[in-house]
Amino acid sequence: xxxxxxxxxxxxxxxxxxxxxxxxxxxxxxxxxxxxxxxxxxxxxxxxxxxxxxxxxxxxxxxxxxxxxxxxxxxxxxxxxxxxxxxxxxxxxxxxxxxxxxxxxxxxxxxxxxxxxxxxxxxxxxxxxxxxxxxxxxxxxxxxxxxxxxxxxxxxxxxxxxxxxxxxxxxxxxxxxxxxxxxxxxxxxxxxxxxxxxxxxxxxxxxxxxxxxxxxxxxxxxxxxxxxxxxxxxxxxxxxxxxxxxxxxxxxxxxxx
Length: 257
Prior knowledge:
Blueprint: E1 11-15, H1 21-31, E2 34-35, E3 47-52, E4 55-59, H2 76-84, H3 90-95, E5 106-108, H4 115-122, E6 127-131, H5 134-150, H6 153-157, E7 158-162, E8 174-179, H7 194-203, H8 209-217, E9 220-229, E10 242-245, E11 249-255
Parallel strand pairs: 1-2, 1-3, 5-6, 5-8, 6-7, 8-9
Antiparallel strand pairs: 3-4, 9-11, 10-11
Helix pairs in contact: 2-4
């Protein structure tokens, strides 16, 4: 995901219970932001990172008109798919070369909400999630900790690295590099999910996503998989060797030679 939008409001951490206060202060220190008193919860111009007893969530400024948000891997359709395992994501699995007992190590260089990475891990893959936006990284870390309490394989198969994939020299070599760059809405009237509206406001655009394709070539030794909207142009205008296309999504495959 891209770096933070310079126009985004200031961020602060808010504990909503006494039990959450110590952890909230530790989070604020880690991010280098203020830790507010619960009485300041209605501050209208700040993006609040709220620590409640069982999770961390984002509370957008009132002017954004967006709901509070946290990452959750255990409820709803995603939770059901993660428990399904092998039947969870056939197009994604096929694109990444997951077949039977063949479960490659996946390096997800644009982790975002971590959903595709978690689906691949549910199939048996070792998955390294890479996310450069610190707030998103914190939400991912929190969600993975909660998920591991119900899904033991999370702790065994999923690793999170909060760093810039374009700048870091410490990323692991993998069999498959996976890219899902944030793609802008096609027009101003397009209906975008509320959570993605929040992420667009938080992290801006992936203006350097083309460079990730070249970076991935130095990390993967089998293939690179790029997830795109079905009719979107190829990343970096480079045609893949093949694509797997669904109704709304396309997976472009680039063998590494």
